[in-house]
Amino acid sequence: MNIQDAGFLKTRFRRQFYLDSVALMRMSRTLASQDNVQEAAMMMGTPANLEILSNAGLLDLTSSDLAEPDIGPGDLIITVRARSESDALSALDEAEQLLSQPQQAGKSRQWQPRSIRSAVLEKPDANLVLISVPGAFAISEARKAIRRGLHAMIFSDNVPVEDEAALKREARDLGVLVMGPDCGTCVINGVPLAFANQLPRGNIGIVGASGTGIQEVTCLLAGMGKGISHAIGVGGRDMSSAVMGISTLMAIDALDADEATQHIVLICKPPAPEVATAVLKRIAESAKPCTVCFIGGQPPELPANAQWAGTLASAAEQAGGTAILAMEAPGGLIAGDAAAAQAHATSVGKVGKGSLLRGLFCGGTLCAEAQVICRAAGVVVTSNAAIPDVSSELLTEGHTLIDLGSDEYTQGKPHPMIDPAVRDELLADALNDSDTAVVLMDVVIGYGAHADPAGQLIESLPADFSDRGIPVIASVTGTEQDPQVRSRQIAILLSGGVQVAESNARATSMAIEHLQITV
Question: What dotted CATH number matches 330-518?
């Protein structure tokens, strides 16, 4: 174990010590929550991660130790910035304890396979492998899986797109499906994988190149009492011209052949034109009704069996065959009941000095949906994750919708779905800004997410929040069966003075209503 001393910035690394990125993000959050710890990160030593840590000011690459060429993707980097040297060293010691826990726990559990070959020998009936290793190794592990006839879900990112395309072409020839790389959400045969929710089984199948897009649609359907057959993530680049929708087309094939699936929903950001043509042609060959949601795009010419949905909420409504219903919360509170509507109407009527909308999102596709709704309402916004016809230049004097899951906000830090405290500083800035009329936020729960994101949001609000006259409007993406329990999260938000809408789309519309009064 080596120590790099850079003042109050301390970095350690372990050779050939791999842990899943989600586990490392959780440990990073634990370290960062310690008193006097300003920033903390635990990452594998991939070139991309080294660059992220360096850009975030959390790594001194001039150090002779850490600049050695043999620091590789299998080496673990632990770095802490604290108020004092002793605080930083204490945090690093805490990291050592956290790292030892999985090993100690493993001694008391039964044997676990350490390779795909040994896993297949242990579970010969399994037909799917979830891969979460450094991106440099993900393709080789996935290739081992598909050549054994296994479908592969690749959570790993930092995979070159040309390698993704080659892998998917080979998988197609072998008749197995590759989901990913950078696939964060799947629900297969009722089993939630990675960032996903506990959902009822049903007859609606989802294909999505968007993790939070899949989560929002499936959870809204669950709130309607509708169920999911499968929700198949394909990775954000599958619909690009480089990959040509290979996994999307195979997923449609699978759902088309699945007797349990009666309706297919396709969710992605605007695809390459030639890919859209191929996908819509395949949809036309299906006897099943389909809903197409190219979030942020314009309606294409659709086959007779397909409907267009401009938002995630409308995609859920079309697939579910009913309008989105309000969800009940404990104590008789309902996010969309008459009392909540009256509270919203009263707050809208209180004209403040501010005129600007500030949106702070954990989910990138939820941010995109909000942009779509603003664009349709004639509200000109900017965003760091801009959809077509929206500027990516963030302007302090204009309406802004920020995706806090983008690289510039997560460099050296956990994703905001794991640690929503990432947006605390921006929330404080928005509430302290006299130009702010309303703040729009999302709360995403489920497996892999923070244990209590609503509670964390309420704790981050200033004590005099209700007196400032700046409403905070949120939606909760999740279900009653999720570990955090959706109704409990709604109740926490309502009790803290946050207005809660039944969908991200409705929350955005409520925020726009404030602008119509104040601007």
Answer: 3.40.50.261
